[in-house]
Amino acid sequence: MWRCLRAHLLAMALLGSSALHAAPLLQLRVEAGEHQATVRRIAVSADGALVATASDDKTARLWRAADRRLLATLRVPIGDGDQGRLYGVTFSPDGRQLAVAGTNGDPATPHRIDVFDAGNARHLRTLQLDAGHVVRLLWTRDGRHLAACLSGRDGLRIVAADSGQTVYSEAFAAPCFGLAELPDGSLLASGFDGQIRQLRSQGGRWQAVASLRTEIADPQAIAVAPDGLHFAVGYRSRLPSGDIAIDVFDAGKLTLARRFSFGGLRGGSLGSVAWSGDGRTLAASGRAGADGQIVLKRITWPQGSVASDIVATNTVQDMVPYGVDWFALASSNGSWALIPAAGAVSTLGGSVIDIRGADSLRADETLRALSFGAGGTQGALRFELPRRLLASGQGSGLDSARRVSFSLRVTQWENQFQPQIAGRAVTMEPLELSRAYALLPDSAGVMLGTSRTLRRVDRDGKPIWSARVSGEVMSVTVSADGRLVLSARRPTARCAGGARQTVCCCCRCSSASTSAGCCGPNRATTTRRWVPSRCSAGMSIAATAWALISFRSDAFVTSTCARTSSTRCWRRWIRSAHWSRLTQNAACGCRRKWWHR
Fold first, then answer.
1. What is the DSSP letter of 560?
2. Which of 229, 286, 485, 505 lies 20 to 30 Å from 302 when distance is taken between CA atoms?
3. Neighbour-count burial for 10-26, b at 16+ CB within 10 Å, e otherwise
């Protein structure tokens, strides 16, 4: 405990005297050498030597493009829930600096853009933003400004790249999502309000000079052709006919020049677009596909012939040109890749286990044994809580979540912004996506997993409680008695030897106690974290395991896991491979007691 206390006091001293009033808890993370969650954005340096990625795992990473070697992991201040997720990354025009941003603020902390040295990964400066979570970043071609698309109605900010001084601010009626620069230095910014705005700098001051309204309400990405004569737009949603459209506009007249529409694609849209460096190929991808596979459309320009290929197993979040005839893609399976503008395409691999779908998470009636992984049985990983045993290929005999009921209908839930329960739309946060659901026993309600929260909703669609999580809830199931809910999400830890280990957090409640705890009145709380003592002999887990979090279904239970201010304590915990009971401690965030098997 004294080691933890000394570490905490040292952290406060390093932060300065003002930190004594509100010293942040250190957030320790295992470095896995790759992204552990969705890669939201990707950027390429001007010379093509470096690739930068930004992720939901609250890191940005710098890679050498030639051999995909990880050069540096860039970290920003993080906290609970969304705080620290990164949704924007951009290189300076000379490739020497790199800016990242995302959900970096909370009610007590200003939003920010962090700038790093791309050569040595050293943090250079922080630029304060007056509002909003950044969802996309762009460094202007002259190197003087950074433009940021913001969530909610905060719209667009343009700040000086050296000082952070705001030089342009505009609120939008809906989130800003697309940013691009024309060869003349003017910017294009799109919002989910259906408008694309053109802005130009005159005498050092930015102002809106033109705008157009798109037929589809939510333009998501903008790609400018190398000659600057046209720009392409990808959308979040579809045409009324159900087809997916990619629009090409005349950059001079701001009028629609050509539309490419595609039918027969299941789910989603083609919200990511990019133009190749030679201008001969327009590429589009996103969430649309078939049989769980994501489609890439490569369109020859101006001929208009289309090649269709499977490119990933999960959403392509971003796409930018690489060199003359290649594209760099970022995906939700935690990976990125370089894809040729023509020729054969290899499907992107993943650095996280695919646990989407009702059958990917299975458990017994008490949630003491569970399996996770694509397919749910063959090739799945099985974890038994009492024995803390991780094994492979043993998902049989366990049940997946119940999702069918004649008395309770759940619709529009898969990757949707407004899922419906019994015909009533569930109130969600801006840009929050529904990912998974499970019915409670007797169809008394629904447990809904989203990109930000785990929610309990009653059978009439009214919210009961919600728990903010640090990763996306991709699968969820409920115990037979309806008292426990098991959700699968990401973060992760690494086993020795390059394999991965599963981390399971469970909150258990006893009605025998009269003390009040996180489970509500007259409930006692025990929070435990089980860690497999080793990876099973002969196992080869090629993807990162997920964290499995259990809550009581009738009242939200908080789970404090592995929080400490002492790196030495953390390392000891990893090596010990024994579960620990955590209790709050004002000095270092938690105290551990160790039990040997």
1. -
2. 286
3. ebbeeeeeeeeeebeeb
Query: 376 Cβ partners below 8 Å, 6+ apart?
Result: 357, 359, 360, 361, 362, 395, 398, 400
CA distance 321 to 314: 20
φ and ψ of 268, to 5 deg: 65, -160
Q: How far is 402 from 418, CA to CA, in rounded Å?
A: 21
According to the model, what pLDDT value does residue 398 have? 82
Structure tokens at 233: 């737009």
Please tell me whether residue 136 adopts helix, strand or coil conformation.
strand
Structure tokens at 109: 């902390």
Structure tokens at 94: 């000379």
Neighbours of 470 (CB within 10 A): 23
| Residues with Cβ within 8 Å of residue 541, at least 6 apart in sequence | 353, 381, 392, 499, 500, 535
Measured CA to CA, the distance from residue 182 to residue 366 in angstroms comes to 58
Taking the model in full, what pTM does it have? 0.71
Identify the helix (H) or strand (E) that includes residue 300.
Answer: strand 293-300
d(CA 266, CA 293): 10
pLDDT confidence of residue 106? 59
Q: Which residues of 246-265 are buried (b: 16+ CB within 10 A; e: fewer)?
A: bbbbebeeeeeebebebeeb
How far apart CA 407 and CA 581 sit, in angstroms, is 41
DSSP assigned state of 19: G
**Tokens 């949707």 — which residue?**
416
Please give the backbone phi and psi of residue 443, each rounded to the nearest 5 degrees, phi first: 55, 40
Residues 152 and 195 sit within 8 Å (Cβ to Cβ): no
Contact criterion met (CB below 8 Å) for 504 and 492? no
pLDDT in tens, 319-363: 999 999 999 999 988 899 999 999 999 888 666 666 666 667 888
- The predicted structure's pLDDT at residue 548: 40
Per-position DSSP letters for 139-177, written without gaps between them: E-TTSSEEEEEESTT--EEEEETTT--EEEEE--SS-EE
Give 31-51 pLDDT, tens digit per residue: 778 888 889 999 999 999 999
Residues with pLDDT less than 70, the chain: 1-27, 105-109, 292, 349-359, 374-379, 393-396, 470, 490-597
Q: Which residue shows structure tokens 């109605």?
A: 153
pLDDT for residue 573: 30
DSSP letter (8 states) at residue 26? P
State which H helix or E strand residue 391 sits in.
strand 389-392
What are the structure tokens assigned to 459, written together?
Answer: 């059978």
| Cα 444 from Cα 461, distance rounded (Å) | 11
Q: Residues 263, 264, 269, 271: is their CA dihedral positive or negative? A: negative
Q: What are phi and psi of 183, to 5 degrees?
A: -60, -25
